[in-house]
């Protein structure tokens, strides 16, 4: 069925899209969208206050790919779902959350790279903060 003139969907430009600051932020956004969808909300692109460079399913596909590559285990996904639904990360300060915090950190570190490759997450990579005055040591046998 053809789309009537003047009724074509308006798609936001990806140049206006604002990537997430971290994989954790992207995951919480994804979980909020999935919960809303489960409760009956109809989600569509470019309807929020901030235009994002992806759909929630894109983040889930990255997680699924990591699982199929055996980079993330079922325990990681379980912890991501539980804490994602709560909307907060587990804290290593509390003994009861210490194991969950370790799995959460591992999962976020592994999810970070594919999300950056797709342009969903921007900024400095997790754990890769630039250091002031770092010395670069030349590789032996290499002329620069």
Structure description:
- Helices cover 43% and strands 0% of the residues.
- With 144 residues, the protein is mostly helical.
- The chain has 4 helices and no strands.
- The termini are far apart.
Sum this structure up briefly.
The protein is mainly α. It contains four helices and no strands.
Lay out the secondary structure.
Elements: H1 23-38, H2 56-68, H3 74-86, H4 98-117
Helix pairs in contact: 1-2, 1-3, 2-4, 3-4
Alpha-carbon Rg, integer: 19 Å
The residue ranges in which pLDDT falls below 50 over 5 or more consecutive positions are none
Structural class: mainly alpha
Strand fraction equals under 5%
Shape: globular
Pick out its properties.
single chain; mainly alpha; 4 helices; about 140 residues; globular
